[in-house]
Amino acid sequence: MIRLSVAIAGMGLLLAFCKPAEAAPAPDVPTAMKQAAASLLQSKLLHATSIVVVYRGKEFIVHEGELETGKANRPTDATLYEIGSISKTFAGLLLANAVIEGKVKLDEPVQQYLPSGYSNLQSGGEPIRLRHLITHTSGLPGMLPLQVNTVLKDFTDHGTPGKLNLAYANYGQPQFWKDLHQVDIEGPLGKNYAYSSVGTELVAHVLERIYGEPYESLLAKFLAREAGMHDVRLRLPADAVGRLAPGYHSDNPVPTSPMPQLPWGAAGNLKATMPDMVKYLRLQLSGHPAVSESHKPLARFEDDFSIGYFWNIGQSRQLGTHFVHHGGVPRAQCYAYIVPKYELAVFIITNQSGNATAKAMEGALAHIFDAVESMEQVVETRVKVL
User: Fold this and answer.
1) pLDDT value of position 37
2) Number of folded domains in the chain?
3) Residue 240 in contact with residue 276, Cβ under 8 Å?
4) Which pLDDT value is given to residue 224?
5) What average pLDDT does this structure show over 123-152?
6) pLDDT at residue 343, rounded to an integer
7) According to the UniProt entry, where is the signal peptide (predicted)?
8) What is the domain extent for residue 144?
């Protein structure tokens, strides 16, 4: 007993000397989020930001800045933001769920779900398949109508939002189907990455055909049932319009109009509150069968870059395998990161959209990723010592 007591006491002394007490304490998540927000809002044109983090079961939300300069209207948990192309990951999740349920297979030709033959949707005799749509390897154009692609080439021009509004003023599904007949596909299919919102809109249509229900209601039901999300919207009811964040395009000091409505909206029309984005991030970390399916790499382009169901899949020393998507509309940009290595998910958004906005957000996110890595290293060191 004496020897055991001495050994225990000796171990206590050893642990005391081995503790990383002299090292600077790792920053906590809320502090890192505040640093990220402060860093982002140093950018000349940025007005406000909201950041969401889910880390090892805990969730955090930070709002900073003014939605409109000089009005002291800080974003809140009730603020609805336009999340742009992160909407695509929602469509991918629903398609993944349809695959899990055995209602569809990724190698099915998209033509079998379309209202007419569309013999033009092929290359070298091979039809565009569903897997080509969700991996951006279909050869479809970025947007329909085709003139929108020309407009977006000069995205920062102050006239761009107005031109987009004009292009989509009376543009619905009938016009989309007509324009789709005019598309020429350059192959080979499944090989070359070419980002396409047209492909995402087709996925929404396929889901409607599979389930016999409008995409909007399919999405709302799935999110409510699987994640308890009730404040993510494709179209805003009158009583919610006042909660939509105003936003700024490029260096224009005057707030601009929202993203115009696309034929289905799956490619970029979702609006969400930060509490609901917390729930979406939790779902993405949950191991839900449809989530796991949506994270599968389906096309590889580089050693450190593949794509799943619209999710970009990256590899890095710091984050390991991670899933990321950027979203952008004329008056907002955002990023979502899912990092299973750390049981971490991050969403950041700002109500400004210009050429430098994405880079500014990436720089801000480094504060969070560095803090989490540091915290993980401290825990790992303590575990090794024990």
Assistant:
1) 98
2) 1
3) no
4) 98
5) 97
6) 97
7) 1-23
8) 80-353
Amino acid at site 291: V
Contact between 250 and 44 under an 8 Å Cβ cutoff? The reply is no
Structure-token pair, residue 133 = 């749509």
pLDDT at 382: 67
Residue 384 has a pLDDT of 64
**Is residue 23 scored above 80 in pLDDT?**
no
- What would the pLDDT profile of 85-124 be if each residue is shown by its tens digit? 999 999 999 999 999 999 999 999 999 999 888 999 999 9
Is 243 exposed, middle or buried (CB count within 10 Å of its CB: 0-12, 13-18, 19+)? middle
For the record, the structure tokens of 208 come out as: 């409607």
Task: Give a yes or no: residue 136 inside a domain.
Answer: yes
User: Does 8 have pLDDT greater than 80?
Assistant: no
Taking the CA atoms of the chain, what radius of gyration do you get in angstroms? 23
For residue 219 the two structure tokens come to 């999405």
Single out the residue of 372, 324, 317 nearest to residue 344, CA to CA: 372
Contacts of 185 (CB under 8 A, 6+ apart): 120, 121, 122, 123, 128, 138, 139, 140
Query: What's the CA gap between 198 and 134, in Å, rounded?
Result: 11
Q: Does residue 60 belong to any structural domain of this protein?
A: no
At which residue do the structure tokens 């801000």 appear? 364
3-state secondary structure of 142: coil
CATH code of 118's domain: 3.40.710.10
